[in-house]
Amino acid sequence: MVGAISCAGLLTVLQTEAAAKEIPVPLTKLDNATCLTCHDADKGDLKATGAKATSKPLHGINNDKFGKSVHGEMQCVACHKDIRDAVAPHKKGTGQKAECVSCHLALWETAKKENLTREKARLGVVVKNIETYKSSYHARPNKEDPSRVNAACDDCHNSHTFNVPPQGTSRRTDWHLTIPDVCGAQCHTDELDEYKTSVHGKKVLEEHNQKAAVCIDCHTTHGIANTSKDTFKISITENCGSCHTENLKSYRSTYHGQINKLGYGYTAKCYDCHGSHGILSPKDPESKVHPNNRLKTCQKCHTQATQGFVTFSPHANTHDFERYPQVWIVSRFMWALLAGVFAFFWLHTGLWWYREAQDRKARRNHPDRRHPDKPRSAK
Q: Which of 10, 231, 268, 326 could be disulfide-bonded to 256 (CB atoms 3.0-4.6 Å)?
């Protein structure tokens, strides 16, 4: 009994000294199973009691989803390096808090030292995305709270469940269709509300059409730029044109398109006329390019525009009779006129050559007028 009391007293002294020296005394092994005793989402609402007897919610982890994620084989403390014990609240150490960028950069450096870049090529892709992200609008300090950036990795990618399905699979399609909610639900709520009413949004959210445009098709994924910069204004036409190829060709033939192609962003681009997130069908009465609204849209730039601007067709082409019958008819007339003119002159020239040949043949044995006594055929 005395020995037990002595051991207990010694353990208390060691724990007190360790706490004073900030040396962790693990009460149990810090593995994933231990973490899930508190952070298992299957247990419902999770709360922990703080030092002042106040409770606060805990982050719950779905172990099944975590196991299927790209991080599923990792230990929690591999990212949460500042966690020192398995008690609530945690005693934080000097280790770095969970942070995606530094972790992936370190992993890639290790892969390069061990000559495993081919086997871990996906890490290289992540590092390239990080470099692109660093110069993006999301990586800038937030205006309201400069202590954080506009959007960090885990704002878009749930670090505990993140897993990009392989290309061409149904899971990849399902993942692609969730992008508008990922961007809009937390941050861009107004844009998401507009997008839901647009032709793109209805195709994606209602019809589940994976070919319809989502946020990253226009804004890219990691290199999201400030939309007020010329670089974005110039690139947006190419992004739109990757789907609307015929409209891009016809736009390039216009004054707007030619100036834009030279690198100037002040001329009208796709979203100047059609809108950005709330794009509607031209037949929709609320559309900015509907005949009833087109003049007002043009007047944003051309303040002196008159009703004649409404007749302008920036995407007119010569092979779409249904949408542009006048252009189709004129083009066919011009082709017929051109073919007729060439046919007439070639026929005229051919008949002329034929007549010359016949005349030469008929006069071959006639006397030469310069030498009446000598036949034309004589040398």
A: 268
3-state secondary structure of 283: coil
Distances (CA, A) of 284 to 167, 209, 315, 321: 35, 21, 18, 21
Query: Closest Cα partner for 40 from 55, 59, 26, 67?
Result: 59
Confidence of residue 10 (pLDDT cuts 50, 70, 90): very low
Nearest partner of 172 among 161, 163, 181, judged by Cα: 163
pLDDT of 167: 77
pLDDT tens-digit series, residues 170-223? 888 888 899 999 999 889 999 999 999 999 999 999 999 988 999 999 999 999
Return the structure tokens found at 284.
């929709």
Return the residue matching tokens 């929709």: 284
The string over 233-256, giving b where at least 16 C-beta atoms fall within 10 Å of a residue's C-beta and e elsewhere, is bbbbbebbbeebeebbebbeebeb
Find out whether the peptide bond into 89 is cis, omega within 30 degrees of 0: yes
Question: Using one digit for the tens of pLDDT, what is the confidence trace for 337-373?
Answer: 999 999 999 999 999 999 888 888 887 655 555 655 6
The string of DSSP codes covering 57-126 is E---B-HHHHHHSTTTTS-HHHH-TTB--SSSSPPB-SSPPP-HHHHHHHHHHHHHHTT-TTTTHHHHHH
Beta-sheet pairing, 47-49 with 55-57? antiparallel
- Token pair belonging to 52: 């002042």
Output the CA angle 148-153-158, nearest 5 degrees.
120
Structure tokens, 265: 């962003």
Whole-structure pTM value? 0.72
Beta carbons of 195 and 203 less than 8 angstroms apart? no
User: Quick one: pLDDT at residue 38?
Assistant: 85
The span from the CA of 38 to the CA of 53, in Å, is: 17
Q: Which residues contact 27 (CB under 8 A, 6 or more apart)?
A: 85, 86, 87
Residue 292 token pair = 């009833």
Q: What is the spatial distance between Cα 267 and Cα 206, in angstroms, rounded to a whole number? A: 34
